[in-house]
Protein backbone atom coordinates (compact mmCIF):
# COMPACT_ATOMS: atom_id res chain seq x y z
CA UNK A 1 0.00 0.00 0.00
CA UNK A 2 1.44 3.38 -1.01
CA UNK A 3 1.31 6.37 1.31
CA UNK A 4 1.78 9.88 -0.05
CA UNK A 5 4.27 11.79 2.11
CA UNK A 6 3.41 15.36 3.06
CA UNK A 7 7.02 16.38 2.56
CA UNK A 8 6.99 15.65 -1.18
CA UNK A 9 6.03 19.11 -2.47
CA UNK A 10 8.62 20.85 -0.29
CA UNK A 11 11.30 18.38 -1.31
CA UNK A 12 10.68 19.03 -5.01
CA UNK A 13 10.82 22.79 -4.41
CA UNK A 14 14.16 22.40 -2.60
CA UNK A 15 15.44 20.23 -5.44
CA UNK A 16 14.80 23.08 -7.87
CA UNK A 17 16.42 25.64 -5.58
CA UNK A 18 19.55 23.86 -4.30
CA UNK A 19 22.36 21.87 -5.87
CA UNK A 20 21.92 19.16 -3.24
CA UNK A 21 19.20 18.23 -0.76
CA UNK A 22 19.75 16.50 2.58
CA UNK A 23 16.88 14.52 4.06
CA UNK A 24 17.43 13.84 7.76
CA UNK A 25 15.29 12.00 10.26
CA UNK A 26 15.25 8.98 12.57
CA UNK A 27 15.90 5.50 11.24
CA UNK A 28 13.07 3.65 9.52
CA UNK A 29 10.78 6.64 8.96
CA UNK A 30 10.82 6.05 5.19
CA UNK A 31 13.53 8.38 3.87
CA UNK A 32 14.99 5.89 1.40
CA UNK A 33 11.61 4.57 0.26
CA UNK A 34 10.40 8.11 -0.34
CA UNK A 35 13.43 9.09 -2.45
CA UNK A 36 13.34 5.88 -4.50
CA UNK A 37 9.65 6.47 -5.20
CA UNK A 38 10.16 9.97 -6.60
CA UNK A 39 13.59 9.68 -8.25
CA UNK A 40 14.15 10.01 -11.98
CA UNK A 41 15.18 6.88 -13.92
CA UNK A 42 18.71 8.17 -14.49
CA UNK A 43 19.38 8.99 -10.82
CA UNK A 44 21.80 6.45 -9.33
CA UNK A 45 21.33 5.03 -5.84
CA UNK A 46 23.97 3.90 -3.33
CA UNK A 47 23.79 3.15 0.37
CA UNK A 48 26.71 3.41 2.76
CA UNK A 49 25.14 0.66 4.84
CA UNK A 50 27.05 -1.51 2.35
CA UNK A 51 30.38 -2.03 4.12
CA UNK A 52 32.38 -2.54 0.93
CA UNK A 53 31.11 0.68 -0.62
CA UNK A 54 31.58 2.49 2.69
CA UNK A 55 35.23 1.41 2.66
CA UNK A 56 35.70 2.88 -0.83
CA UNK A 57 33.95 6.09 0.20
CA UNK A 58 36.24 6.51 3.20
CA UNK A 59 39.53 5.46 1.62
CA UNK A 60 39.06 6.78 -1.92
CA UNK A 61 36.28 9.39 -1.91
CA UNK A 62 37.28 10.77 -5.31
CA UNK A 63 36.81 7.33 -6.90
CA UNK A 64 33.49 6.92 -5.11
CA UNK A 65 32.17 10.24 -6.42
CA UNK A 66 33.27 9.28 -9.94
CA UNK A 67 31.43 5.94 -9.60
CA UNK A 68 28.27 7.68 -8.43
CA UNK A 69 28.31 10.87 -10.46
CA UNK A 70 25.18 13.05 -10.27
CA UNK A 71 22.31 12.83 -10.34
CA UNK A 72 22.64 10.42 -7.43
CA UNK A 73 21.19 9.39 -4.08
CA UNK A 74 23.73 8.69 -1.33
CA UNK A 75 22.04 6.96 1.59
CA UNK A 76 23.36 7.25 5.19
CA UNK A 77 25.95 9.90 4.39
CA UNK A 78 27.04 10.09 8.06
CA UNK A 79 29.14 6.95 7.57
CA UNK A 80 31.50 8.77 5.17
CA UNK A 81 31.50 12.48 6.14
CA UNK A 82 34.66 13.01 4.07
CA UNK A 83 32.46 12.77 0.95
CA UNK A 84 31.01 16.20 1.74
CA UNK A 85 34.15 18.00 0.54
CA UNK A 86 34.06 16.17 -2.80
CA UNK A 87 30.34 16.81 -3.21
CA UNK A 88 31.13 20.51 -2.62
CA UNK A 89 33.65 20.44 -5.49
CA UNK A 90 31.08 18.92 -7.85
CA UNK A 91 28.48 21.49 -6.80
CA UNK A 92 30.89 24.40 -7.25
CA UNK A 93 31.73 23.36 -10.81
CA UNK A 94 28.20 23.61 -12.20
CA UNK A 95 25.05 25.70 -12.03
CA UNK A 96 22.78 22.66 -12.19
CA UNK A 97 20.37 22.00 -9.34
CA UNK A 98 19.39 18.76 -7.64
CA UNK A 99 22.71 17.01 -8.19
CA UNK A 100 22.72 14.96 -5.00
CA UNK A 101 20.03 13.70 -2.68
CA UNK A 102 21.55 12.69 0.64
CA UNK A 103 20.03 10.97 3.65
CA UNK A 104 21.35 10.87 7.20
CA UNK A 105 20.00 9.19 10.33
CA UNK A 106 22.53 10.67 12.77
CA UNK A 107 21.47 14.29 12.60
CA UNK A 108 24.10 15.75 14.94
CA UNK A 109 27.01 14.29 12.99
CA UNK A 110 25.48 15.03 9.58
CA UNK A 111 24.65 18.66 10.38
CA UNK A 112 28.16 19.27 11.71
CA UNK A 113 29.69 18.24 8.40
CA UNK A 114 27.12 20.11 6.31
CA UNK A 115 27.75 23.35 8.20
CA UNK A 116 31.50 22.99 7.62
CA UNK A 117 31.43 22.22 3.89
CA UNK A 118 28.06 22.68 2.17
CA UNK A 119 26.47 25.68 3.85
CA UNK A 120 24.44 27.58 1.25
CA UNK A 121 24.72 24.81 -1.32
CA UNK A 122 22.37 22.34 0.30
CA UNK A 123 18.71 22.43 1.27
CA UNK A 124 17.88 20.51 4.45
CA UNK A 125 14.56 18.85 5.25
CA UNK A 126 13.56 16.56 8.10
CA UNK A 127 11.25 13.58 7.73
CA UNK A 128 9.42 12.02 10.63
CA UNK A 129 7.16 9.00 10.93
CA UNK A 130 3.71 8.94 9.30
CA UNK A 131 1.35 11.64 10.46
CA UNK A 132 -2.24 10.71 11.19
CA UNK A 133 -3.23 12.50 7.98
CA UNK A 134 -0.77 10.39 5.98
CA UNK A 135 -2.01 7.17 7.58
CA UNK A 136 -5.65 7.99 6.87
CA UNK A 137 -4.74 9.46 3.45
CA UNK A 138 -6.68 12.62 4.21
CA UNK A 139 -6.33 15.70 2.05
CA UNK A 140 -5.03 18.88 3.66
CA UNK A 141 -8.03 21.19 3.55
CA UNK A 142 -8.53 24.31 5.65
CA UNK A 143 -11.32 23.20 8.02
CA UNK A 144 -14.72 24.77 8.10
CA UNK A 145 -15.60 25.20 11.79
CA UNK A 146 -19.27 24.59 11.10
CA UNK A 147 -18.45 21.27 9.44
CA UNK A 148 -16.14 20.28 12.27
CA UNK A 149 -18.91 20.61 14.84
CA UNK A 150 -20.99 18.11 12.87
CA UNK A 151 -18.32 15.40 12.91
CA UNK A 152 -18.60 12.58 15.40
CA UNK A 153 -15.83 12.40 17.97
CA UNK A 154 -13.40 9.49 17.73
CA UNK A 155 -13.77 7.01 20.58
CA UNK A 156 -11.26 7.57 23.37
CA UNK A 157 -9.91 4.03 22.91
CA UNK A 158 -9.15 4.75 19.24
CA UNK A 159 -7.32 7.98 20.09
CA UNK A 160 -5.22 6.26 22.77
CA UNK A 161 -4.41 3.38 20.41
CA UNK A 162 -3.26 5.80 17.71
CA UNK A 163 -1.09 7.70 20.19
CA UNK A 164 0.52 4.53 21.61
CA UNK A 165 1.17 2.96 18.21
CA UNK A 166 2.59 6.09 16.63
CA UNK A 167 3.30 6.27 12.92
CA UNK A 168 6.47 4.30 12.21
CA UNK A 169 6.06 2.89 8.67
CA UNK A 170 7.32 -0.58 9.66
CA UNK A 171 4.68 -0.81 12.36
CA UNK A 172 1.90 0.45 10.08
CA UNK A 173 2.79 -1.46 6.90
CA UNK A 174 3.97 -4.75 8.36
CA UNK A 175 1.36 -4.99 11.11
CA UNK A 176 4.03 -5.98 13.66
CA UNK A 177 3.12 -6.06 17.33
CA UNK A 178 3.97 -2.72 18.92
CA UNK A 179 6.12 -4.09 21.75
CA UNK A 180 8.19 -6.27 19.41
CA UNK A 181 8.72 -3.45 16.91
CA UNK A 182 9.87 -0.84 19.42
CA UNK A 183 12.07 -3.28 21.36
CA UNK A 184 13.88 -4.06 18.12
CA UNK A 185 14.01 -0.37 17.16
CA UNK A 186 15.56 0.71 20.46
CA UNK A 187 18.15 -2.08 20.30
CA UNK A 188 19.10 -0.99 16.76
CA UNK A 189 19.27 2.65 17.81
CA UNK A 190 21.53 1.90 20.77
CA UNK A 191 23.84 -0.43 18.88
CA UNK A 192 24.20 1.44 15.58
CA UNK A 193 23.81 5.11 16.42
CA UNK A 194 24.46 5.77 20.09
CA UNK A 195 27.47 3.45 20.33
CA UNK A 196 29.17 5.51 17.59
CA UNK A 197 28.90 8.74 19.60
CA UNK A 198 32.14 8.90 21.56
CA UNK A 199 30.58 11.06 24.27
CA UNK A 200 28.26 8.19 25.29
CA UNK A 201 30.16 5.30 26.84
CA UNK A 202 27.56 3.67 29.09
CA UNK A 203 24.62 2.31 27.07
CA UNK A 204 22.84 1.12 30.22
CA UNK A 205 22.81 4.66 31.59
CA UNK A 206 21.58 5.99 28.26
CA UNK A 207 18.78 3.41 28.15
CA UNK A 208 17.75 4.50 31.65
CA UNK A 209 17.72 8.08 30.35
CA UNK A 210 15.45 7.06 27.43
CA UNK A 211 12.96 5.41 29.76
CA UNK A 212 12.95 8.41 32.09
CA UNK A 213 12.31 10.80 29.19
CA UNK A 214 9.55 8.58 27.74
CA UNK A 215 7.62 8.53 31.00
CA UNK A 216 7.57 12.33 31.01
CA UNK A 217 5.90 12.75 27.63
CA UNK A 218 3.61 15.82 27.61
CA UNK A 219 4.99 17.03 30.94
CA UNK A 220 7.03 20.15 31.69
CA UNK A 221 10.72 19.46 31.09
CA UNK A 222 12.59 19.33 34.39
CA UNK A 223 16.27 18.49 33.97
CA UNK A 224 16.94 18.26 37.71
CA UNK A 225 14.15 15.72 38.17
CA UNK A 226 15.37 13.62 35.25
CA UNK A 227 18.97 13.65 36.49
CA UNK A 228 17.92 12.70 40.02
CA UNK A 229 15.81 9.77 38.80
CA UNK A 230 18.58 8.43 36.54
CA UNK A 231 21.20 8.64 39.32
CA UNK A 232 18.90 6.77 41.73
CA UNK A 233 18.15 4.04 39.18
CA UNK A 234 21.82 3.61 38.29
CA UNK A 235 22.73 3.31 41.98
CA UNK A 236 20.15 0.54 42.39
CA UNK A 237 21.51 -1.29 39.34
CA UNK A 238 25.08 -1.06 40.66
CA UNK A 239 24.05 -2.27 44.10
CA UNK A 240 22.23 -5.27 42.60
CA UNK A 241 25.19 -5.96 40.31
Textual characterization of the structure:
The chain has about 240 residues and is α/β, with parallel strands linked by helices. Helix content is about 55%, strand content about 10%. The longest helix is centred in the last third of the chain and has 18 residues, at about 225-240. It has helices at about 10-15, 30-40, 50-60, 60-65, 85-90, 105-115, 130-135, 145-150, 155-165, 170-175, 180-190, 205-215, 225-240; strands spanning about 20-25, 45, 70-75, 100-105, 120-125. The model has no long low-confidence stretch (mean pLDDT about 85). It folds into two domains: about 10-125, 3-Layer(aba) Sandwich (Rossmann fold); about 145-240, no CATH class. Strands 2-3-4-1-5 form a five-stranded parallel beta sheet, with helices on both faces.
Amino acid sequence: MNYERNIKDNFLIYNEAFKSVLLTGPRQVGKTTFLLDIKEDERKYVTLDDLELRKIAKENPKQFIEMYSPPAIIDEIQYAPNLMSYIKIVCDNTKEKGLYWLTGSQKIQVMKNVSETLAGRMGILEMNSFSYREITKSKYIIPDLNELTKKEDLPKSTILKNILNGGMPGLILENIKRNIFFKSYIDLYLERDIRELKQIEDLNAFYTFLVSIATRTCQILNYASIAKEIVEKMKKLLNHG
